[in-house]
Queue: 3 jobs
Job 1
Amino acid sequence: MPKLLHLQVACAENRVIGRDQRLPWSIPEDLAFFHAQTAGQVVVLGRICFTHWPRAALDGRRPVVITRQADLAAPGVQVAPSLPAALAIAETLPGEIHICGGERIYAETLALERPMRLHLTLVHADIPGDTHFPEWRHLAWRELDRRDRADANYRYTFFTLERP
Ligand SMILES: NC(=O)c1ccc[n+]([C@@H]2O[C@H](COP(=O)([O-])OP(=O)(O)OC[C@H]3O[C@@H](n4cnc5c(N)ncnc54)[C@H](OP(=O)(O)O)[C@@H]3O)[C@@H](O)[C@H]2O)c1
């Protein structure tokens, strides 16, 4: 049986997740949560996310990078040309599978007919950006957990949602 897929995303109310290849906000608690969730696990991510995340291959993470650039492979870093190919590699590695974006990878994952858990940090603001999380609210999620939080700049909610 394939492993449960964990999706990790922080998204604004207008579904923005990125701007100019970076996060469009700084929310230290969310970043710490993301790092804790993915430490020691397999992380599946696009080439831009990988190149801008210095800790992708640290803290025991096993990255599987989706790219056509085979030369990104390195000790402890695998590359795959598509999401299905990346998931096939991820299934062979120890640990949970965490899908870490970007946009197209999230869209292709949400379209899969298989169990998944969405770890969503919803930032309660409309934020300008150029990269989006697909609309997820119409899908049949079961809410496992919700924590409302705030810092000096943002109100945000940590959701754990699951789909069978
Ligand atoms: N807020 C969040 O939780 C969050 C999470 C993730 C990302 N982000 C933000 O989103 C932005 C990066 O995401 P992005 O969507 O622009 O880029 P990305 O997915 O990280 O990288 C895009 C590249 O990955 C490869 N790729 C991606 N999907 C593919 C697919 N389905 N099949 C084959 N190759 C694929 C291609 O690489 P090649 O061109 O090398 O072939 C493509 O050019 C940044 O601003 C980042 O900060 C935010």
Job 2
Amino acid sequence: MRLPSTAQVQRFRARVTEVLGLQHDDSRLEMLGKLLMDRCAASGARDLETYLALMGTDDERRALARALTVGESYFFRVPAQMQAFAEVALAAALDASDGGSVRVLSAACAGGEEPYSLAITARERLPAEAARRVEVRAIDVNPAALERARRARYSAWAFRDVPDAQRARWFRQRGAEFELDPAIREAVTFDELNLAGDAPLPRDLDVIFCRNVLMYFAPDVMRRVVDRLTASLRPGGYLFLGASETLRGLSTAYELCHTHQTFYYRLRPDGAEPHAPPPTLTPSPTLPPLDATWVQAIQRGAERVRALTEQPTPRAERARPSPRSSLERALLLFREERFDEAMAALEGADHAQDPDALLARAALLTNMGRFDEADEACADLLALDDLSGGAHYLRALCREHRGDLEGAIREDELASHLDPRFALPAMHLGLLTQRRGDSARAARCFARAIDLLHDEEPERLLLFGGGFDRAALLAFCRARLHSLEAPR
Ligand SMILES: C[S@@+](CC[C@H](N)C(=O)[O-])C[C@H]1O[C@@H](n2cnc3c(N)ncnc32)[C@H](O)[C@@H]1O
């Protein structure tokens, strides 16, 4: 086959997303072009069209999964999650199980490190009778990963976060490798299954670990996969994601849990959405992209308003602004730091069920130094949307104002977890941990804030940046970092 054109590689990329869910940015087009040529040749397809059709077959999907998935994993990854798994999730499931079994799924299990860690954790932390009732199932789309998992032999690198004594308890050294105890091996069952496909997932699960795979999926696939996992989980069941992954923007069916210094999710007991979804006052033809924050949506709204205000509006319509347009107007006033007028614009309409307006109101109140009211506004917003990173960040400011340093740190940690690209909580955490005398952590927070500030969205800086622009915030963080790094 001749070298594929860019358009052909892009079609291949789109098919890869359809078949495996995986998303690749433009920097990966060259790699995809080579893979396309290799796969066309290996599959015997006579042209691109034939090959694109072939991609849906089991054999070709397996070949692509071998080539395109990232199987990086290790034992007891994020030990705090293992503790929360045993002490919160398993404990609750065993309590509710009435002597029956407790079902755990490791979704995207790679070479078995994760499901075996879960099985070992159950045995280490539960009485023998309870541990026997824990069934661990594991799935992955890559057959090569499943072969490794079933073989259950690992190099020392797979134990980089495991104390030697713990490794020695469950593994026997065989040359340069470590072989898993057969009792643990037999406690886990493995299946080939595509999270992005249609084949049913195991049902009635009590706990799901789905770590470090959603981040490789296209946004609509992430949502579909989370919906599939949700349908498989029992009401009240627990979902653990990777350390840099969040359900924010993907599902509101869960509550966020924060114990053992780690985050995870619990499916609300009735499995239903927590609150009535906010009314859509200005329906948009397409969903906003997953990584869009509400402020981007509002910015688009503001542009619409600007366009609208350039057209003459009939007097009757002008008299009663819709809640959404009053929000847009409030944000324009906010930009000009006309806080009182912005507040008046918000108060002129009924925004009780609109998370965007509640967040704008809370941000305004914080900027005006009305912290008690801001705290109440955050509480109203969190009652509607408890995964709002912005609300947790504003709550951190309110806690700090009240002198509750630890509470402020906790709220910033929540905000950063829910929205890992949000720069302001990282900066604020730097300030708070520096005040607490934890210089090493403060330096890490400022370094992270500097990283994030480069890409932080202008509208978010406007709302949460306390009146400083990007350059000022960057200079501030750099100066703090410098002072922490300078020899004393
Ligand atoms: C980085 S590993 C994560 C392993 C483990 N969960 C952890 O956190 O250590 C990602 C795994 O996701 C699997 N994967 C990728 N796409 C998948 C899909 N569509 N369905 C099921 N598994 C998938 C890959 O084969 C790989 O083993």
Job 3
Amino acid sequence: MSENDYLLKLENVKLSFKEQGGKYRKIIAAADFAVYKEEFFVLLGPSGCGKTSILRIIAGLQEPTSGRILMENQSIEGPSRDRAMVFQGYTSFPWLTVLENVEFGMRLYMKEENKIRERALYYLEIVGLAEHREKFPNELSGGMKQRVAIARTLAVSPKVLLMDEPFGALDAQTRWLMQELLQEISRKEKITVVFVTHDVEEAVYLADRIYISTVIPSRCFKIVSVPFKSRDVQLKNNEEFRQLEDEVVLSLRQAVFSKGGE
Ligand SMILES: Nc1ncnc2c1ncn2[C@@H]1O[C@H](COP(=O)(O)OP(=O)(O)OP(=O)(O)O)[C@@H](O)[C@H]1O
Ligand SMILES: [Mg+2]
């Protein structure tokens, strides 16, 4: 792959927060990575190392202390629907139906009612919620709510989908189903994903590459490439899959005990 195949690039991004008393605390010593077009890029690292902050910086919701973020070689300034985020919590509007929730984002920039409806139904079909379109979020299970969030986010055709532990609150069974669904959608729709998780199995199953972060002040400990071509669920029982999972767990342990940067 060449430089031109990058969709997103972080160059020497640093982040510090001012603490009570006026002293600065360095959270990110350096985030320096590029994400290829159509890549599934997973951020893995100890709690508090700045993973959510990296997503917020890419989304344009948090300004870095220094460094550059490039999207297709253009510096990004502030939020845009090019970079849409799915949060960990359930973030649908409770007073709108499933269908209206999915249509909401499109209404901000699209005019034609029939196009909006058509796209919303298309994405509801993809996430398997078409028949639940008239329900309200409080009538849905956790997995279904996250599927609404995914449909709503995909409907605005972002160039990159930012996902912050989107399945963290789900039970193991639902989580597996959601992982399977997400990997099918992301490959079929050719979307670029930056995905945060704590779960090593989830990371290995979904990722093309895994970015492992050190503790704060954080920097890259290692980037692991995942070689599997097919992502059948049976992959998780495969010997090579388990070996790679063990390697990633080991790297994560080393990353936790390694010192962050300055
Ligand atoms: N707005 C803010 N003001 C001050 N400190 C902040 C702010 N946002 C985040 N932090 C601090 O920055 C650090 C990194 O937070 P962040 O949420 O990015 O970590 P994380 O890697 O996503 O953690 P987790 O895995 O627990 O979700 C934490 O120590 C947090 O307290
Ligand atoms: Mg977080």
